[in-house]
Amino acid sequence: MSIKISEMAGWREIPVAGVAYRPSTESKTGDWRSFRPIVNEEKCTGCALCHFFCPDGAISLVNEKAKVDYDFCKGCGICAEECPVKAIEMVPER
């Protein structure tokens, strides 16, 4: 018996401490955030550490600068902590 992805529960239906059976980039989870990362493009060196450390794959490099996909960013702040030049600031979500 196989289960189709379309038949699985969305993130709102997963119980606390439940297991998500899909990659985070398949479900828009950006509305979980209470803080959002803001990238200062003047400071960003394009090192991509934020991209590699992001647990949700929400950061990519565009023109050698970090770009956050807010549809998938949960606002954990790992990117800001790992940025060696402090080009990412966490600000309260509006």
Structure description:
The chain contains two helices and four strands. The protein is α+β, with helices and mostly antiparallel strands and 94 residues long. The protein has a domain at 28-92: Alpha-Beta Plaits, CATH 3.30.70. The protein has a two-stranded antiparallel sheet with strand order 1-4. Strands 2-3 form a two-stranded antiparallel ribbon. Strand 2 (59-62) and strand 3 (65-68) form a beta hairpin. The termini are far apart. 15% of the residues are buried. The model has no long low-confidence stretch (mean pLDDT 85).
Write the element-wise H/E pattern from the N-terminal end onward.
EHEEHE
Architecture (CATH level 2) name of one domain:
2-Layer Sandwich
Percent helix among the residues? Answer: 10-25%
Strand order in the largest sheet: 1-4
Radius of gyration: 15 Å
The CATH topology assignment of one domain is Alpha-Beta Plaits
Total number of β-strand segments?
4
Number of helices: 2
- How much strand content do the residues show? 15-25%
- Which outline best applies? elongated
Task: Report the CATH C-level class of one domain.
Answer: Alpha Beta
Terminal CA distance reads 45 Å
For the report, how would you describe the main beta sheet?
2 strands, antiparallel
The structure class reads alpha+beta
**Average of pLDDT:** 85
Low-confidence stretches: none
